[in-house]
């Protein structure tokens, strides 16, 4: 298989045969925090002085269209103060539990392939806040100079707005306003805007129907339950809030029948045409795994026939997608349906541009296999390293399906860090009930640069122990006397005596977690390559990627 040749390195001699207790380096010492360009220091200090719900967590019901929801009036007044930048370009607005960022990337690249100047606003970022705003025909993050100049040109207006709103403007609201001002300044043809939380009361939901070309709802799942009303139905209603009067909505899906009805009822009430990316008129298949432009890729067929006629139909055979998994194929379908919808709205978009845009799309941290050299730089030689920001039950399932497709016979070890507002038990159950796991190391990573939403390694471990008991799966965990007796003197070599058990341990240090998981995997796989997965949030993935850029 070609993918193996690309990312699997030669096995090397096992090292670091020390007791577990000897390793207590903090992850911050090993993975240096990414430092923003000095030119942006003033901007970063300014927005960091504002309330940041990504760090602290979102209040209960804040994303619902109710008295407890975020006040969109603040954002509307800020838009007026900045000269209504949204009126200068057309927009596509994207909401959904999963798939927003990938769909935005696919659609942005389709439009850029046609020659349009595109603004794209997404969150969160991996290494630099500039990643949240790409602009122009090349798809690169906004430059430090351009962002700094824009900030200083509107800083007075931002300060006036903060005073006017009694200091209630948030980090995300101001960042969103800066992005909209940037897109207007750069005269983009169209902007692809990803909602931050929910939709109805999200700061991005100040786009009027006259400024909107289409809205997209990718998926509906049980994430941010407390902030979005406490049920799957309330989440669907919140995300359906981006649907605007008379403007088409693309539904990604597939959705549960009653959730699909909520979305369609909202569209019907708004007289919005509906395009479904998951009905019988869409046919897809994954034919195999290989490499494309130096990256692992999946070869796919994609056929869409929304209506009779070439404007609403497309057939793409042997399409190479560098983002792997059936979920990423579905995201590509959703973006393609949107492109066909825009074509019907009068945008010039060729089938060739759709293919080129899809094939040129890659996002770090989404089913990202590291190369052998990258793994070696991390000190993880001998295993195939996979980074993925999965943090829900559904995304864990999708990740396992991707692994099963690419390396069906490989043994697996995982390193996990998660935010406190995620369903840790459901996430653990999905992994434990999937492939046999050789080792699970639970660790910690700062969330959005802070610790208030970080889940402790021990709390995660206890959730995994509970999950294993509820599933009836035996694990050897570090609260057991037998674990301590077995690994007291020689941790790695002792794994031979627990050959058929999943080793489960908490480690505060990310570096230690990676090293131990890799050594256990190599000890157990012997001559066969194993897969070391880093997952649980994009924040732990960003720490690993940051270390590659030191």
TrEMBL record:
Family matches, as InterPro entries: Folylpolyglutamate_synth, Folylpolyglutamate_synth_CS, Mur-like_cat_sf, Mur_ligase_C, Mur_ligase_C_dom_sf, Mur_ligase_cen
Keywords: ATP-binding, Ligase, Magnesium, Metal-binding, Nucleotide-binding
One Pfam assignment: Mur_ligase_M
SUPFAM superfamilies, per the entry: MurD-like peptide ligases, catalytic domain (SSF53623), MurD-like peptide ligases, peptide-binding domain (SSF53244)
Domain of life of the native organism: Eukaryota
Family: Belongs to the folylpolyglutamate synthase family.
Protein name: Mur ligase central domain-containing protein
Species name: Gossypium arboreum (Tree cotton)
């Amino acid at each position: 298989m070609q993918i193996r040749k690309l990312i699997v390195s030669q096995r090397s001699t096992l090292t670091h045969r020390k007791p577990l207790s000897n390793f207590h380096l903090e992850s911050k010492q090993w993975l240096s925090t990414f430092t923003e360009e000095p030119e942006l220091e003033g901007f970063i200090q300014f927005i960091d002085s504002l309330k940041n719900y990504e760090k602290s967590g979102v209040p209960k019901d804040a994303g619902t269209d109710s008295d407890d929801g975020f006040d969109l009036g603040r954002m509307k007044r800020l838009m007026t103060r900045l000269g209504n930048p949204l009126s200068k370009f057309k927009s596509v607005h994207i909401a959904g539990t999963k798939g927003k960022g990938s769909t935005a990337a696919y659609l942005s690249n389709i439009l850029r392939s046609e020659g349009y100047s595109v603004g794209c606003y997404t969150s969160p970022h991996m290494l630099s806040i500039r990643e949240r705003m790409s602009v122009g025909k090349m798809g690169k993050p906004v430059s430090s100079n351009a962002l700094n100049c824009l900030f200083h040109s509107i800083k007075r207006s931002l300060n006036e707005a903060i005073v006017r709103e009694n200091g209630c403007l948030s980090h995300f609201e101001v960042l969103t306003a800066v992005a909209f001002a940037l897109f207007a300044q750069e005269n983009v043809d169209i902007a692809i805007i990803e909602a931050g939380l929910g939709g109805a009361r999200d700061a991005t939901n100040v786009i009027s129907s006259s400024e909107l070309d289409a809205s997209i709802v990718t998926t509906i799942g049980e994430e941010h339950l407390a902030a979005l009303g406490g049920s799957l139905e309330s989440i669907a209603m919140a995300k359906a809030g981006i649907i605007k009067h008379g403007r088409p909505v693309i539904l990604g899906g597939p959705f549960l029948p009653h959730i699909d009805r909520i979305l369609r009822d909202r569209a019907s009430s708004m007289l919005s045409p509906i395009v479904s990316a998951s009905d019988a008129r869409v046919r897809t298949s994954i034919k195999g795994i290989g490499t494309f432009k130096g990256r692992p890729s999946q070869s796919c067929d994609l056929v869409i026939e929304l209506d009779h006629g070439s404007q609403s139909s497309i057939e793409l055979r042997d399409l190479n997608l560098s983002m792997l998994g059936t979920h990423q194929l579905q995201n590509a379908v959703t973006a393609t349906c949107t492109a066909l919808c825009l074509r019907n709205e009068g945008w010039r978009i060729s089938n060739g541009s759709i293919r080129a845009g899809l094939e040129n799309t890659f996002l770090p941290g989404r089913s990202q296999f590291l190369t052998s050299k990258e793994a070696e730089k991390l000190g993880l030689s001998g295993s195939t390293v996979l980074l993925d920001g999965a943090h829900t039950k559904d995304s864990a399932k999708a990740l396992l399906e991707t692994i099963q497709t690419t390396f069906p016979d490989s043994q697996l070890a995982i390193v996990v860090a998660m935010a406190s507002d995620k369903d840790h038990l459901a996430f653990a159950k999905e992994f434990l009930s999937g492939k046999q796991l050789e080792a699970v190391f639970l660790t910690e990573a700062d969330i959005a640069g802070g610790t208030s939403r970080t889940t402790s390694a021990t709390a995660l471990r206890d959730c995994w122990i509970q999950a294993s008991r509820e599933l009836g799966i035996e694990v050897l965990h570090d609260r057991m006397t037998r674990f301590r007796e077995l690994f007291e003197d020689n941790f790695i070599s002792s794994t031979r005596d627990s050959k058929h058990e999943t080793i489960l341990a908490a480690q505060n240090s990310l570096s230690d977690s990676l090293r131990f998981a890799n050594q256990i995997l190599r000890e157990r796989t012997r001559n066969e390559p194993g897969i070391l997965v880093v997952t649980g949030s994009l924040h732990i993935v960003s720490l690993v990627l940051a270390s590659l850029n030191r």
